[in-house]
Structures
1.
Amino acid sequence: MNAHALPAGADAVLRYENLNAYYGTSQILHGLSFDVPAASVVCLLGLNGMGKTTTLRATMGLVDRTEGRITLNGREVRGPTFKRSQMGVTLVPEDRKVFANLTVAENLEVARRPTGAADDFTFEDAVRIFPRLGERMNQKSGTLSGGEQQMLVVARAMLANPAYMMLDEPTEGLAPNYVEAIATSIRAARDRGIGIILVEQSLPLALAVGDWFHIIENGQIIQSLGREEALADAQRIEKALTVE
Amino acid sequence: MREQLTADAGVIAGQPPRRGKAILVIAAVAAVGAVFPFLLAGEPFLLMLASYALTAAIVALSLDLLTGNTGLLSFGHAAWYGFGAYAAGLLSKTVTSDIVLLVLMTMLATAVIATLIGAVLVRQIGKTFAILTLAFSQIIFAIVFVFSGLTGGEDGLQGIPVPTFFGLQVFKPEVWFWIFYGVLVISLAFALHVRRSPLGKAWLAIRDNAERASFIGMNVNRLKLIAYSSSATLAAVAGALFVLFNGAASPDLLSWFESGKILMYVVLGGVGTLVGPILGAIAFTVAEHYVSSFTDAWLIYFGGLFVLMVIVAPGGIFGALSGIWTRGAASREAAQ
C-alpha cells in the first residue's frame, strides 16, 4: 500500500460527492458522485464534451468554480494544484507534455517523491515497466517519439508516488506496443495500491484494466458497472460511446 | 542497473564530473584573471573598461538566472542593479566603508525587498510579468527623484568614499579588476552548480511547463520567487560594486534603457546558457565604447546588429560558438 496518511476511521478512497463544476457561467458537471477505492481502476467513459476531463481538472483545482466535495482518504482536496498533488493525487493530461529540455533521467528525478514506503516506485521500476526509457535515460526528452513521451509522463507520475493517479486518454494515437506498455503500467500502479481514474476512448484498454466503469453524459453519471457486468455487456457500453 | 541509475542521479544532483578536470579549469581561470591586469599595464583606461565589462557580465548573469532558468522575462532588471548601487552608496556614506560589509548589507536588503515584491510579481506570467517588472523599475526610478535630498536626484549620488578592505583603501584599478573578476567567477560557478542541482532542474521543468510541474507537486510560485530573489540579489551585488568603484551613482542606472541593455546582453550572448550572457555583456560593453567613439548613432548600428543576431544566430554568441565547436568535433571524428 502506498504510504499516504490515512486518518483513523477513514476509507482509503478518493471520493466525489455531488460535484458541480463550472467554466465561467457554463456548468459542466452536474452532481457527480463516485468513489475511487485504493488499488482499483475506475474508468470514466463517454463521448467528447461530456465532462470526463473536467472531472480530472476539477480534482486538480483547474476549473473556474466547483461545488460539492472531493475527499482523499477522508481529507478534503482543496487549495492550489501543487498542494493537491502533495496530498497524493496527480494528473497525467492527454497532451503528453514532457519537460523537453531535461533528459529522461532528469524528468524522472524532478518528479521523484519518495514516501518512505517499501513499495515506492523507483527508477528501476520505471525502467522495468518501460524498458525504452531505460535506453534513453540521457536523451533530451523533447527528442523522444510521441509514444516514448507518453511513457515518460506516465512514469513521471508514478515516481511522484501518488495515492491516486488520473490518466486522461493515455493511449490516444499510440501504436499497439505502446498501448500494451501503458496497460502494464496501470496494472503495476494498481498492484502497488494506487487508485486510478482512467479516462479512455479505447474500450478494449478500459476493459482490460478497469475494475469499475462509469458512463458520463452531460456531466452526470448515467450508468455504473462492475468489471463482470462490463465484460458481459461490452456491446452496450460500446453503443453508449458511439455517436449516432 | 542500480549503479547506472545512481550515476544518473549523481549527474542530476550536481556532483563534479571529474575532479582533475575541474582543478585544471579553476587553475586556468584564476591564472587568466591574475595575469590580465599586467597585460594591460600602462593602459589604465582599458583596465577600467574591462572592469565595466565585468560589471555588465555579472548583471547579465543575474538576469539569466531568472530568464534563462524559469522563462520569466524581466523588462526592468536595472531596478535591482540601480537599487544595489544606491543602497551601497548610501550605506557607505552613513554606516561603513568596509567593502565586504557593504556588499553583504546590500545583498540582505535586496533579498528582503525583492522577496516581498517578487511574491506579488511571480504570480503573473508572460507579458503581464514583463510589463509589471517594467512598471516596478519605473517606480524605483521615480523614487530617486522624489527623495532627491537623499539620493541626489538628477545629479546622482555623489561623494561616495573610497571603500576599504580590512582597513586598506581599495582604489587601484587592478585590484578592482580582480574583485569584479572574482565575483563573476564565483557567481558563474555557483550558477552552474545550481543549474545541475535539483533546484536547477526544477527551474528548468517549470520553464518548460509550469502546469505539469505543479501536477507533480512543485510549488511553482515559490520556485519562481527563489529565482527572482537570487537574480535581484546578484544584480544588486553588481550595482554595489559598480558604485563603490565608480564613486558615484546616476539615476540612469535604474532607467528602462539600462534594463534594455541588460536584456540585450542576455539575448546577444544566448538566453539560458549562463556563460553566453557574460560573453554578450563583455562584447556589448567593449563594442559600445569603441563604436560610440566613432558615431553618435551607435544605437542604430547596435539595433541592426541585434536584429541580425536574433535572425542568424538565435542561440546567441554561445549558441553560435557551440555550433562551430560541435561541427568541428564531428569533422575531426569523421576524419579519424
2.
Amino acid sequence: MRSHLLSASDLSREDAIAVLDTAAELARVTDRAVKKLPTLRGRTVVNLFFEDSTRTRISFEAAAKRLSADVITFSAKGSSVSKGESLKDTALTLEAMGADAVIVRHGASGAPHRLAHSGWIDGVVINAGDGTHEHPTQALLDAYTLRHHLAGGEGALDGRRVVIVGDVLHSRVARSNVLLLRTLGAHVTVVAPPTLLPVGVETWPCAVSYDLDAALAGADAVMMLRVQAERMNAAYFPSTNEYSRRYGLDVRRADLLADGGIVMHPGPMNRGMEISAEVADGPRSVIVEQVTNGVHVRMAVLYRLLGAADLTEEASA
Amino acid sequence: MTLTLRNVRPYGEDAVDITVSDGRITDLAPAGSASGSADQVIDGRGLVVLPGFVDLHTHLREPGREDAETIASGTAAAALGGFTAVHAMANTTPVADTAGVVEQVWRRGVEAGYCDVHPVGAVTVGLKGEHLAELGAMADSAARVRVFSDDGVCVSDPVLMRRALEYVKAFDGVIAQHAQDPRLTEGAQMNESALSGVLGLRGWPPVAEEAIIARDLLLAQHVGSRVHICHLSTRGSVAIVRWAKERGVDVTAEVTPHHLILTEELARTYDPRYKVNPPLRTADDVEAVREGLADGTIDAVATDHAPHSREDKDCEWAAGAFGMLGLETAFPVVMETMVTPGRLGWRDVADRMSVRPARIGRLDNQGRPIAVGEPAHLVVVDPDAVWDVDPARSPSRSANTPFLGRQMSGAVVHTLLRGRPTVIEGALT
C-alpha cells in the first residue's frame, strides 16, 4: 500500500483485499470484550473537514479512537475558497502539531492530492472525500459490505454484478467504487440519465446504461447515489417526479435483483426521490450495516497506513 | 549615438554588421566590414537576428495588482524575452476602459523604457458586457488604442459584439475576442475530456470556444469588419478560422506558447501552476495549433503572460487563479515546437512573432524588415543555447511559470529598442 490513500486506484488488488481482511479481523476483535486496541497510542490523527460531513467525520473519529490515537478534529468549513485560512496555512499548522495522519474532506477535487504532494506536511494523507473526485474509504466500506453478503466475507468480488445508479457526474462515491470494484473483479454498470454521466465515461472500467430495469435484472447489488437538490435547477433532468420514475429504486425494481441481491446507499438518502422508503427499510437493504462497516474499514486503513505492528500478534498480546 | 551589431545573420541568412543611429538602421554591410567607429559595438557571434518581437496579449497587472506585476517589471521580462512591443490587456483595476487609464498605462511604459507598451482598451465598461466603453476616446488618446478586448471575459452578447465590430471600423480598430461561452463554462476548471471526468474537475468543453469563434466570424463577415481571435486552443477552432479565411473573412488569430507545447495531462498534478484559461487541451489539439501556425491560419504567437501572486497559486486547484507567465519562455517554445522540427523558418518566426502581430495592432514602426532606414527594433537569438527556467532570476514579480525546472533550448541574447540595447548577453542593461 502506498503512503497515502488519495484514490481507490492507489490500491492494488492485494492491497484492497488486505485492507478488507484487516477490517474483518478488527471487527472480530472489537466485537469481543476489547472495544479499544492500543495500536496507535501516542500517534496523532487529525480530522480536517473543510466540508460538513457528520457521518464520515464521526466514523473516522471512532476508528482512530478505537485504535487509541489522539484525535484532533478541525472543522474548517469554507476555508480558502471563501478567503479564510488557506489550505496551505492549515496544513502548516497541522505539521507544527506533529500530525501523523491527516484525514481530509474538502470541496475541491484534488485538495488531498495537493496536501500530500506539495511538501507542506510530512504525515500520511487520507482522502475522506474531495469535491467530485473520489472517496476511497467509502468504496472500501462498500466493498467490505458486498464481500460480506456476496462472497462469504473473504477474498475478492470476482464475477459479482454491481449496478451504481444516479448522479455519476458529480459523485466521488461512484468514481471510487467503479475503480475499486473493478480492481476486485466485480462487473460494474453505471446507470444515469445521460446528463448525469461525465464526458468520457465510456473509457471507465465499467458498463454504461440508461435503462435501470435492464441493468438491475439478475444483478447482485445496487448502489443508489444521492441526487443533490441543486441539480434540479440546472436542467440535468426535467423534474424530480420524472427522475424518480426513470431512475428511482422502488420495490418492483428491487425485486429484479438476483435472489439475495442487496440494496446500498452511501447516505444521506432522499427517501421518495432516488429510493423509496419501503426499499430503504426493506429486507434487501444493508444501508445501516454500511455505516457500521465504515468504522472497521477506516480502522484498517489507519492501521495499515500508520505502519502498525502485525495485527494477530497484537490481538493476542 | 551609433551602435554596431557585428556578425549577425538576419533571418538566419548571410552574416552582416548592422549599424544603427538615432533609432534607425543606417547601414547593413557584410560581416567584418563595418568601420568600427560606432559609439558601441556588440558582438553578435554569427547568431540569428530578427525584428523585435511584438506581443498581442500581455497582462501587466498595473494598475491594481502591482504585487503580481508592474508595467516596469513586466516590460523588463518582455525585453528579456526579445519583445520590443507588448499589448497590455485591459483587465486591470480600474479597468482600462477610459482614455485616462490607457494614457496612464502608455505613459508608464514610456517611462520604464524596456519596450513599447500599447494598451488594449476594454470593449465594454468595466468588462461587464453591458455598454460599450468609449472606444473612440481611447483611439484618439495619446495611447492611440487600436486593439480592444474584454479579455478574461467573452463579449458574449451577440448584439453588443456586432456593434463593437462595426463601431471600431471608424478608426481601423479591431476587437480581440476571448472566445468562451459563459454558460457552457460555468465553474469550469480544465479541458472537458475523459480526464476531467476522472479527476472530478468541471470541464471547459472545446465547443464553448468554437461556437463563439464561429458566431463572431459570421458576424464579422456580415458587417464587413475585421476580428481577432485570442488564444485559440482547439483543433475545431483552427478548422473554423481556416474555413473563414478561405471565404475571405477578415480574421486573424493567435496561439499562446503554452498551448503549443503543454497538454491537459498536467492537471493530474492538481497544481494550479497549470491552470489557465482557455485550459490546456489534448495532444491532438496541440498538433492542430502547430499545423495552424505553420500554414498561417494562426497569424501570431501571443504570450497571454498572466502573472499571479504566490498565494493565488499556492492552493488547491479550484481556488487557484487562471494564467501563467509567458514572456521569457515564448521564443524557446517556438524554437522547440516549430523551428527545430522544421515547421517554421526564421522568416516565418519573424512573421508570426513580429510582422503580423504588429500589423494586427496597426503599429507602424514595429514588425518592420531588417533594412536600411527601418526602425532598429532587433532581437538576437541563439538557437543552440540551453538554459534552465528559474523564476528567481526573472524581473517578473511573479513565479507562476509552467516551465519551472524545465530546460529550454533557444535563448534571447540581445534586444534593441530603437537602436538602444535593453538586453545584452541575456541581461537587462
3.
Amino acid sequence: MTPAIARRTVTAALGWLVSAALLCACAQAADDAASTPADDAPSQGAPTADAAGTPPPPDRHQPDQPQPGTSWKEWKERLQDEHDLYAGGFIDIRSGLRTQRDSTQRRMSLAETRLELDVEKEFAGGAILRLRPDFVFDPVTSRGADRFDLEDGHGWLDLREANVALSPTRWMDLKLGRQILTWGTGDLVFLNDLFPKDWNSFLLGRNVEYLKAPSDAVKTSLYSDLANLDVVFTPRFDADRYIDGDRVSFWNAQYGRRTGRHHYVHVDRPDNWFSDSETAWRLSRTIKGYEAALYGYYGFWKSPAGYESFGGKATFPPLSAYGWSVRGPLGKGIANVEMSYYDSRDDRDGDDPLVRNSEFRGLAGYTFELARDLSLGFQYYLEHMTDYGDYRAGLLRGMATAEQNRHVLSTRVTRLAMNQNLTLSLVAFYSPSDDDTYLRPTLSYKITDNWLVEAGANFFVGSRDYTFYGQFEDNSNVYAAMRYSF
Amino acid sequence: MNDLPKIALWAVAALATLTLPVLADGEAPGADKKELTVDEIVHKANLAAYYQGADGRSNVKMTIKDAGGSTREREFTVLRKTVKEGGDQKFFVHFHQPSDVRRMTYLVWKHVGDQDDDRWLYMPALDLVKRIAAGDKRTSFVGSHFLYEDISGRDVNDDTHTLAETTDKHYVLKNVPKDPKAVEFASYTVWIDRTTFLPMKAEYLNDQGKVYRVVEALEVKTIDGFPTVVRSVARDALGGGETVSEFSDIRYNIDLKDDVFEERSLRRPPREARK
C-alpha cells in the first residue's frame, strides 16, 4: 500500500466513523421524537436542518421540549406558502471497495460525500425555475478536486438540473436548460433513449438516479388527441459519462488489455455549438392502456465508438437511430417490446474497422407481482451487428472479435419487508453469447422519513477479458451509503 | 427504482383516501321509506363512499405510527374523476412529503370488473415513467395500515352480504368472502350510516373470530353539499400501530379535464394537484 493510498483509506475510514456516529445520534433523536405525542412530534426532537441544509446535532437532552425558533420544516412550509419557493435536498455519504485487486485502480472504488440542494420557484405565469446542484467531496478521483467540469461531472460541482419549464399554450410544454431526460421501455437497458448516461456512477454503486447524466437541451412537447410529439434539441453534443479508465478499468482495444487510471481514454469529442447538435423525437399515443411510440435520433454515438486514423484518439462517430416501442398489460403483468436501428452514418458498409458498424437492437420484457410485496421482471435484449463479414475482414491481427449477436437475459427481483421500509432487490444480467454476468444486489432501509441506509454490490464475471461485462471483472465492488434528506 | 413498488402502494392508498370522502344527496333516513334490501344498501354505500361528485381534489396527510411508537408522515394531493358512476374512475396523485419522494406522481385508471387497473408511476430524479403491474389489492402501502382495497374499493361482488342489525344510526352488515383463500380475513362487519350511507367503521375478523383490523371514520364534514370523511384511521388491533389520514382543501366538481389524467401530468402536475 503506497502512502497515498493509505492516507486516503484512513481519511475514508474516519469519514465513515464520523458519519456512523452522526447517524446513530440522529436515529436516536428520531426515536425520541417518535415517543412524544403524535400531534407534537413533527416540531420536536426530530432532526432538523438549518437554512444552509446542514443537519444540526440533535439535542438529546430536551426531546420533549418545544425547540426554540422555527424548525426547518416550518421554514419550508412558509417558503412554499408565501413565496411559491421550494427548498430541500440531501446529504449522501457513500463508500465502496473493490472485492479484488485491480492493478490499474485504487482499492477504494468510492468515497464521497455529496450535498444536493433542490430549489424550485414557481412564477405567477406558471413558469417553474429549478436548480439542483450537487456539491461533491471525493478523495478517490485522480482529477483535481479544486476544479469541476459541468460536462463530464468531474470535480466538486455536478449541476444536475438548471432549467425553466413553461406551458405557453394548452397544447404545448417547453423545458429549457439543463435537465434529466428519459424515454423508452427498458429496465436499465436503453435502445431509443439516446440521452446521456453515467456508466461510472452505475457500475460503482451511486444511487441509480445517477445513471442518468444531464442534458443541456430544449425539450418541446406538443399534445393533441391524435398523438403527442416530443422534440429534444441539444445544441452541442452531450456524450455519456462513459467508462474512461479514471474510476473503472476496462478493455482498451488500443492496448489489447484492460487499462485503468494511468491510461484513461483520450477523446476527440464533437463540441461545436449547433454544427455538433443532437435532435431526438418521439411520437406517442396511448390506446386503451397500450402505449405505442415511434422514435428518431440524429447525432452521435454517445460513448466512444471509433478511433481517429491518425493520433489514436477515441471518437464519437455520427449516428442516427429509428425505432418503436409498445407497452401494456398482458395477463397479470406488464409486457414491453422495443426495437431500434442504429445507423452508423460514417460506416454504412461496415468495412471501416475504425468505426462501429450499424446495429439492430431489440428488447422484450415482462414484469409481474409474484406475491404480495414481491415482484419479478424478465428481459431479453439483442444487439445484432450488420455487415458482420466486412467487420471481420477489417479486423487487425490479434484484435478481440465481437460476436455478431450479443444476447442478454436479465431479471429483477424486488422484495419489500418491514412495513415496506426495507427493499431488497437483485438485478442480474447474463449474456450467453459473451458468457459474462453482472449481478447487482441492493438493500435499502428507511430508518425514518429523513434517514436512509443503503448497501449493495456490483459483481462482474466473465470468461474473457474483453466482453461487455467481463471487462469490468476487476472492478467488482461492494458499497454502503447513508442519506439524510431535508 | 427499488422504491417503486412501495411508492406505488402508498399512491394507491392515496387514491383510496379521496374515495373515502363521500356524499349524501340529502336523502332522508330510510326510516320513512320501504325497507331497503341488503343489495340496495351495499350499492348506495358503494356510491356514497367512492363516487361523490363528478370529480374532486383533496390534500392528504397520513401519520403512520408503528407498534413501537415511531412516526412517519406522507403528504400528497389526489385528483379524482369518475368515468362512469359505479364503474371506472381515474386518479392522479402528487407527492409532497417526505422530501425523497417529492414530485413523484402516480396515475391510475381504475377499472371495475375483470380488467386490471392501469397504473403509471413517475420518478422525477430519473425522468422515468414506469408502468406498474397489477398487484394484490390486500397489500398495505408503505408503513401505512390502510390497504389498497379497503380504500379504493373492494368489488361488492366478492363477498356475500347479510344485514345483521339495523340500529338507530347504522345498518350493520356482515360480509363473508366468496373466495376465502384470496384474502387474509374470515369475515368483516361494516357499520353504514343510515343517513349518508357512508361506511363509518369496518372490523375485520380472523379465522379465530378475533377482530384484528379496524378502519374507522373519525370525522365527517359536509363539503360542497357532500358529507365527506375528513379524518379516518386504520388500526392494527392485535399488533398495535395505526395510520391516521387527514383530508384538507377538499373540493368537488372542479371540472377536471380528461387530459389531466394523461402522461403529460406525470411530468408536469396540473395546477389543481399542486399543494
